[in-house]
Structures are given as structure tokens and as C-alpha cells.
Amino acid sequence: MFHSQDPRTMPKEQDWPISVEMQFLAGLEEGKSRPTGNMCSPGTDVVYEGKIDPRHCINSTSKTYFGEQWVRAEAIVLGDSIVTHIVNGDKVLEYTKPQIGGGVANRYDPAMKIDGKLLKEGFIALQAEGQPIDFRKVELKNLKGCMDPKASNYRKYYIKSDPEDCKYN
After folding, report:
1. What CA–CA distance (Å, rounded) separates 94 from 53?
2. What pLDDT is attached to residue 62?
3. CA dist., res. 63 & res. 122, Å (int)
4. How far apart are CA 53 and CA 49, in angstroms?
5. CB within 10 Å: which end of the chain, N or C, has fewer?
6. What number is the average pLDDT over the span 23-44?
């Protein structure tokens, strides 16, 4: 879960944090599709294919993964603009404008659920919902930094420039 609600603002009765979820699922039955990297939206909405999608979960186009194997999942979250889910190097889902709205989160503090408020930041929550999961490596990359290739701290993956961050030898 990302763009997640601050846990200190959640009443103990609240079932899910208001957040956007990149859902990890494994195959259960041979021959039955069960994609991973889906988007679920407890207390949030997203714009998918040009409009707010009312579904709680939007399936990705990922293949189904069976048994015990490592699957690399990446979420590229560009604030409140675009979110891309990548599974084992393949883009499997993309949507925009994550925002507070929708249902599924219950017994929340109404002051925290401001429908329509775009989500630009928040906490990250790791969870196992329906089956065991191991997280081998969790990395966060700040996508804002020095975009001048002449600087010693230039990184080609930056997407937002911060010229004051540039360091020159």
C-alpha cells in the first residue's frame, strides 16, 4: 500500500488504511488466471482509461505465478499524476490521479476521508492478506534530484529537477 494514511490517524476499529494498493497474488489453481500487481483502492479512487473507475480492484495484465518463486514488483509513483505497476520487467497496469474517495475502508475518522483530495504522498504499508509472502528487498528511490549530466550526483532516472542538489567536482 502506498500514499497510505498515517497510522496515527486511524481509529483501532478502522479495517484498512485509506491508501492505494499494489496487490500481490499467487496462482491457486492450475489453468485459472490470477494476475498479480493489481490495483485495489481502500478509501480511494483512481482514474483509469480516462475516467474515475468505480471498481475496488483493477486487474493487471500480468501472468499468473505459481509456487514459491521470487517475483519482482515495482511501483513507479509520480505523486498525484501517474502510477505504473511493473512485474518482472513488464508494465502491467497504469493509472492516474490517485485520490481519496470510494468505499471499502470502514469505521475511519471522517476528518481523514476528504473525497476528491489528490494523494501526492503518504506512508508505505507492507501486508500479507490471504497467503504468506516474503519481501526480499524493499527499495525506495527519490525521483527528484540533479538532472545535469555534468554533476557528480546526476542520476538518469530522475524525473524532477532539483538544481540546488547538483554537486560539481
Report:
1. 12
2. 97
3. 29
4. 8
5. C
6. 93
Q: Evaluate whether 163 touches 146 at the Cβ level (below 8 Å).
A: yes
Phi then psi for residue 156, to 5 deg, are -70, -15
64 contacts 56 by C-beta, under 8 angstroms = no
Residue 77 class from Cβ within 10 Å (0-12 exposed, 13-18 middle, 19+ buried)?
buried
Contact criterion met (CB below 8 Å) for 45 and 102: yes
Strands (E), 3-122: 21-23, 38-40, 44-48, 51-52, 57-58, 73-78, 82-87, 90-100
Among 8-17, 56-65, 122-131, which is the least confidently predicted range?
A: 122-131
Quote the pTM value. 0.88
β-bridge pairing 144-145 and 160-161 = parallel
How far apart are alpha carbons 66 and 5 in whole angstroms? 32
For 59, residues 6+ apart whose C-beta sits below 8 A from its C-beta are 35, 38
